[in-house]
Write a structure and sequence with these properties.
Layout: E1 9-12, E2 25-33, H1 58-82, E3 87-90, H2 92-97, H3 99-107, E4 111-114, H4 128-146, E5 152-153, H5 164-170, E6 175-176, E7 186-189, E8 204-206, E9 213-214, H6 215-221, H7 226-243, E10 248-255, H8 262-277, E11 281-283, H9 286-295
Parallel strand pairs: 2-3, 2-10, 2-11, 3-4, 5-6, 6-8, 9-10
Antiparallel strand pairs: 1-7, 7-8
Helix pairs in contact: 1-8, 3-4, 7-8
Length: about 300
Amino acid sequence: MVDMSENWRVRRAGRGFKWPDGAKVAVVFNIAYEGWSDGKAPGIGPMGNVLQAGFFDTNAASWGSYGAVRGIQRLQRIAAANGIKTSVMTNGVLAERWPDTVAALAAGGHDIVAHSYGMDVIPVYLDEAQERANIERTTALITAACGERPVGWISPRATNSPRSQRLLAEAGYIWHGDCNDDDLPALIDVGGASANPRVPTSPLVAIPLTMDINDLPHCIRYGNAPEALIAQFKAQLERATLADAQPFMIDVTAHTHVFGRPSGAWVFDAMMRLARARTDIWIATRREIAAYAIEQREHFD
């Protein structure tokens, strides 16, 4: 968790840290429910080649819009059929445009994760006032849609700013996922190093967003067949647990505009079935992992 401006103590999970019931692996099924601000489009699209500068990419915009039109409903049905609660990275713009969808996700027990206002609103590009306003706006829109404040935040690209952890703690967030430097949660003691009374004394949990089982880089960036991700997930479950006895976590991430389509949704279902068939796995939401990490704080060094 790179932080270039704050000097907070980071406590890592020690050798005494274990998942509940001695599980070897915690698996989180994430749904990336992503949208863009008005006049903005994804930086990549199904055609691969980008348009000339100054032209709005209607093709990429339409491709990205599929997630709200069809993809989120399909992935939600698959999760329900498997009895699995997911962590849904939700942009504020989608809570604004499709509040009933976000309300249904929350009512179904899914963990609604704030994901900035839009995928084009990346904290590292913002000054402090702009970032604070973005957190407040995103939080308010999600709260209005589902009646409950989100407690977790993942920035677009999992790319925060040097001040994001402080601002999220001030806003009442319990955890963030803007890190990729571990495969276990860590505790950030933001309160002990800040004179700001708005920063809570309880730790902010950093839950890494592991990228090994993620549909977008797997298929869109690297051009792999969807079914290859199943083999990769299965091999990691089987071989990593045999090679090393220490616990770790795996994120299984499906974007609603990528694996929300029929060509990939069945892969999300297949990976859920693989996880459910194991007896040494804790299938959890990120919110559950954050709560467990705080409960087990004595096992963090």
